[in-house]
Amino acid sequence: MSLNVASDDFLRELDASLPGVICPVEARYLEEPRGVFHGQASAVLKPRSVADVSHILARCNGARVGVVPYSGGTGLVGGQICEQPGRVLLSMERMTSIREISVDDQTMVVEAGAILKSIQDAADDLELLFPLSLASEGSCRIGGNLATNAGGVNVVRWGNARELCLGVEAVLADGTVVHGLKSLRKDNTGYDLRHLLIGSEGSLGVITAARLRLFPKPVEVVTSLLEVDSPDVALSLLRALQRRFGETISAFELIDATGVSFIRETMPDLVLPPIGEAKWQVLVELGTGEGAALSARFEAALADAMESSMVLGGHIAQSEAQRLAIWRMRESIPEANKRVGAVVSSDISVPIGRIPEFIPRARDVIQRINAELRVNCFGHLGDGNLHYNIYPPKGRSKTEFGNLREEIKTAIHDLVYSFDGSFSAEHGVGRLKVGDLAKYGDTGKLAAMRAIKTALDPNAIMNPGAVVSAGP
Ligand SMILES: Cc1cc2nc3c(=O)[nH]c(=O)nc-3n(C[C@H](O)[C@H](O)[C@H](O)COP(=O)(O)OP(=O)(O)OC[C@H]3O[C@@H](n4cnc5c(N)ncnc54)[C@H](O)[C@@H]3O)c2cc1C
Asked: For residue 212, which of 198, 192, 191, 196 has the smallest C-alpha distance?
């Protein structure tokens, strides 16, 4: 079943029924961070309320016009990019209010267009924590975070966006509004549509608001950057620290020396924390309530880890400025990577216990394809998610190696699957990985996904071309 183009008549009628909803198609809506996809759209629609979204989707469904939901535009798999002409982009940027914060319930109801950083700040004002944290937090919006089930740096303690959301309000393809914003931890009343919509990347409906979980803000926080010899040792360190500090470890990030050299190469003015010469660094952050003597206990743990040569060197932030410098370095890796220019970027996960085996195996695979290629492997070791990115040799351009892209990507993903891993740990499928889902996805799951898509979006208007097409 093919879609129709959003005709001038269709847009005129929409404008008459919702004055001001149609906005110019600015260039920023047609680009994405990696520069892989270039979009086009008949119009950008900016609803002000859930009623507006419902009205728009009902009209689009009736006229069979494709709709691409858009929040912050920071997605890395092209899900927010409208590639075909004649479709409309639905931007959530006018729906940014925080409808409610309950200190007693430790929850907050926010509209989908609220920027992640503003949600973190609103929680912080009340000495609470919304722990979702990504390098794009100043631009991404919670609707996009939920639609992609974003991960980030705190998953080891607090989980993905999914675990941080108690319920959603959403509009389905035909305009039906699903009201799911109750503040309940227990509510076993049939299918949980929240879990269907979270991670569906705009392919089933539009998330218009969410009830988010908040947590007591850690009072004592320790952040450190430690040198280790290998991912194997990094994993042993994680387990050793978890035995001593349990759930209080909120971030455990693995950083390859190549990543640090990329920052030095491309961002020479960035003030870096002290960084040792070891091949690998780990960024560890822990947080507790008052009176836990966390700093002293961590220093003792670090002394033991150095005594046993598990940790080769490193430092603990002694001030908020030093803590921020460590995080700034970690958060600058994606930008430095972009400036160097990756031949292939991947966002993979394997069982955590197998990461030490995976990393050298993957390096061998890449070396066999072309021994000159550079690897920058970094990521969220604490939750098993690595960004395994491949770069040209210093001074050469990625375009020179463009003919190897498919071979490299396939080799990495095949290896990931032989480790029982995933080709998309936290970024989603979007448009970039539709072929990977078809290739590596479980056939039973794919059939169920197509059936769900057909049932909830029979005219296939929602984010056409992303994730999965309608069944059978
Ligand atoms: C520098 C940088 C660092 C990043 N780091 C991380 C990281 O650590 N972890 C991580 O998980 N991601 C990371 N990302 C990827 C990206 O920021 C996340 O995927 C983010 O959750 C996307 O949010 P957004 O608001 O920008 O969504 P968009 O890019 O606008 O949209 C993403 C997808 O969600 C759909 N969508 C958007 N809004 C809605 C809605 N209201 N209802 C239904 N569907 C919707 C879109 O159609 C699209 O398919 C990073 C990106 C950058 C540029």
From this structure: 198
Domain 98-216 has CATH 3.50.50.60: no
The number of the ligand 1 atom at minimal distance from the alpha carbon of 33 is 53
Domain residue limits, the chain: 8-93, 98-216, 220-337, 347-418
Q: Which amino acid is at 275?
A: I
Is pTM beyond 0.70? Reply is yes
> For 395-442, how does the pLDDT look when each residue is reduced to its tens digit (9 = 90+)?
899 999 999 999 999 999 999 999 999 999 999 999 999 999 999 999
Residue with CA nearest ligand 1 atom 11: 150
- What does the block give as tokens for 385? 């998610």
Q: Which CATH architecture has domain 8-93?
A: 2-Layer Sandwich (3.30)
Residue of 87, 95, 134 to mutate, ligand 1, most atoms within 8 A of C-beta: 134
Q: Which is nearest to 331 in space by CA: 286, 285, 362?
A: 285
Domain 347-418 -> CATH class: alpha beta
Q: Which residues line ligand 1 (CB under 6 A)?
A: 33, 68-76, 79-80, 92, 112, 134-136, 140-141, 143-145, 147-148, 150-152, 201-202, 206-207, 334, 426-427, 430, 463, 466
Q: Quickly name the fold that domain 220-337 has.
A: Alpha-Beta Plaits (3.30.70)
Calpha distance 335→115 (Å, rounded): 20
Q: Scanning the structure block, which residue is given the tokens 């959003």?
A: 6
